[in-house]
Design the sequence.
């Protein structure tokens, strides 16, 4: 409402928006925010006409994705038996390749182990059991969804469209599209939905051909995946796990020292608090941890 005409065309940018929000916000509002927590309002206000164009593009992608789930072209080259096999593929999961279980467990280990070590000092028995249950459910679902039997045209279209719509709706109240680290992944998801092919028959043919190729070469694939390449991949994952675990243990030590320092300060034991705070600063390597770079000042103040 208070935005100048020039800024309405080219946008305020994140910095100017924060200044304008602070200037024109309601007097009783205590918050100083840098985003409206709404992807469309953020883009229109901060990018102007360009943000309006991006908003229209996202909506057009979603309309196209929803329409692609119901509009199917007929293709006489697909036999009735093939159509039936494709429709029932999602419910015909008869076996799970054991290799997938090992791959997914190794891929998930760095994230799961890091989370566990960082939260372990504050974990109760109930939370530990819940963590194990969550990790197990993730592995089971990932293994099931990784099977070829789930690669059906309808399933993929519905899955991609549902995920994109949920992401866009959720971003009416949060900042995924405002954060540099998350906006890339979000745009990839929406782009996948907007890029769904219009011809369902073509996608169906590709799925059927893929299944035939997989069935014909399954024996060769099992042999090719093995050997040296498998061990190289396994060594890389183990190295990644070791590096992540090392940093997780370091972070855990820092958190433990800071927690103990805070407790000592509350008991007015400033000497112990200063010693623990200095230990946290030394462990955290201030050169690589900007958030603790000024910790020496805190230690001196204690």
Sequence:
């Amino acid at each position: 409402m208070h935005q100048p005409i020039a800024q309405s065309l080219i946008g305020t940018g994140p910095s100017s928006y924060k200044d304008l929000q602070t200037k024109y916000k309601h007097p009783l509002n205590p918050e100083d925010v840098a985003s409206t927590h709404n992807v469309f309002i953020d883009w229109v206000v901060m990018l102007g006409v360009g943000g309006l164009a991006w908003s229209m593009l996202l909506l057009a992608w979603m309309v196209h994705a929803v329409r692609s789930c119901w509009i199917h072209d007929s293709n006489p080259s697909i036999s009735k038996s093939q159509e039936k096999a494709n429709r029932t593929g999602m419910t015909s999961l008869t076996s799970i390749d054991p290799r997938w279980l090992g791959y997914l467990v190794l891929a998930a280990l760095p994230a799961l182990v890091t989370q566990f070590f960082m939260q372990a000092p504050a974990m109760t028995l109930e939370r530990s059991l819940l963590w194990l249950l969550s990790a197990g459910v993730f592995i089971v679902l990932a293994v099931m969804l990784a099977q070829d039997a789930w690669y059906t045209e309808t399933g993929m279209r519905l899955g991609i469209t549902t995920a994109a719509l949920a992401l866009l709706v959720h971003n009416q109240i949060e900042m995924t599209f405002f954060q540099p680290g998350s906006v890339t992944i979000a745009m990839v998801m929406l782009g996948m939905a907007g890029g769904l092919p219009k011809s369902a028959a073509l996608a169906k043919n590709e799925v059927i051909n893929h299944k035939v190729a997989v069935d014909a070469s399954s024996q060769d694939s099992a042999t090719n995946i093995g050997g040296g390449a498998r061990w190289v991949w396994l060594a890389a994952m183990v190295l990644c796990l070791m590096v992540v675990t090392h940093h997780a243990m370091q972070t855990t030590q820092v958190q433990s020292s800071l927690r103990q320092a805070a407790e000592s300060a509350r008991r007015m034991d400033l000497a112990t608090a200063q010693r623990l705070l200095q230990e946290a600063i030394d462990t955290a390597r201030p050169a690589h941890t900007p958030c603790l770079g000024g910790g020496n000042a805190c230690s001196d103040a204690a």
Notes: Confidence is low (pLDDT under 50) at residues 73-94, 286-302. Residues 281 and 288 are 11 Å apart (CA to CA). The first helix runs from residue 5 to 10.
